[in-house]
Amino acid sequence: MGCSRVRTYGELVMFSHTLFSLPFALISMLWAAQGLPPGRIIFWILVALTGARNGANGLNRLIDREIDAKNPRTAHRHLPKGLVKEWEVILLIFFCFALMVLAAFMLNPLCVKLLPLPIFIFIIYSYTKRFTWACHLILGIACGGAPVGAWMAVTGAIGWPSIVLGAMVTLWVAGFDIIYATQDVDFDRSHGLFSIPAKFGIQNGLYISAFFHAGAVSLLMYLHFLMETGWFYLTGIAITAVLLFLEHIIVSPKNLRTMRIASYNINQVVGVVMLIFTALDMFIKIR
Predict the structure, then answer these.
(1) Which of 104, 115, 218, 245 is deepest in the core (most CB within 10 A)?
(2) Amino acid 2: pLDDT
(3) Do 93 and 55 meet the contact criterion of CB atoms below 8 Å apart?
(4) Closest C-alpha among 136, 169, 175, 170 to residue 27
(5) How many domains, in total, are found in the chain?
(6) Does the keyword Ion transport apply (predicted)?
(7) What is the CATH number of the domain that holds 13?
(8) Does the pLDDT of residue 154 top 90, yes or no?
(9) Rounded Cα distance, 174 and 125, in Å
(10) Predicted model pTM
C-alpha cells in the first residue's frame, strides 16, 4: 500500500481530529496513575483510542454515504466521489475496531467486558441525525468515553473523576458540533434530518452551544477541587474559557463564514492546552 493510499484513508476518517478526544484521555490517564503509568499501559491506551476513534469515523462515513452524496457540502467526500470503495472502508473499520479489541485484552478484564458499549454508541450515533436533534450529545458521549476508558485502563475500575471529565468532554464536543451543524440547516430541514440548529434555529442553537460550553468549563472547575489541582491547571482552565468565549464571539447567524474556525480550529487547541497545563500541574507542584 502506497503512502498516498494511507493518506487517503487518513483523510477519510479525519485522523488529524484525534486531537479532540486524545488530550482528555491522557489527562484522565495521568490522574488515574497519579503520574505516568508504565509504558505498556500508555502504548495500549494510544492503540485503543486510535482504533476506536478512526473506526467510529469510518463507520460514520459508511453509514452516511448516501446523505453525503446529496449534500453539496459533503458530496466531495471520499465515498461519494468514488475515491475509496465501500469494501475498503469496511475493511478499515474492522481493522480499527480490531485494534481496539486487542488493546482491551492487553489492558484488563473490565476493558474487555465493556467493549460492546462504545461500539454500540458509535453505531447508534451514525443514525441519530435521522430521528433526534440530540445527535450532538450522542456524539459528545461517544467522545466522552475516552477519559473513562483511559482511567479504566490504568486502574481496572471506573473512577468518578473520569466520569466528570467524560461529561465535560460530552458538553464541549456537543457545543462545537452544534456550531458545525449551522452550515447544514437548510439541507437538514429539506431532507428530514435532525439537529439543534435545524430544530430551534441558528441563533437559539448558538445559545445552546454556549450553555453547553459554560457547563464544560464549570465541570473543569469542579475537577480542580475534586483533584486538588494547582495554579497551572487553573491557568489551563482560564485559557480554555477565553478560547471558548472567543469561539462564540466570532460566529453569529449573520457571520457563519468563521464557523470552521469556531468549531474546529479553536477546539483543536483546547484539548492540547488542558493537557499541557494539567501535566505541568502534576509534575511541577505549585499550590
Answers:
(1) 104
(2) 58
(3) yes
(4) 169
(5) 1
(6) no
(7) 1.10.357.140
(8) yes
(9) 12
(10) 0.94
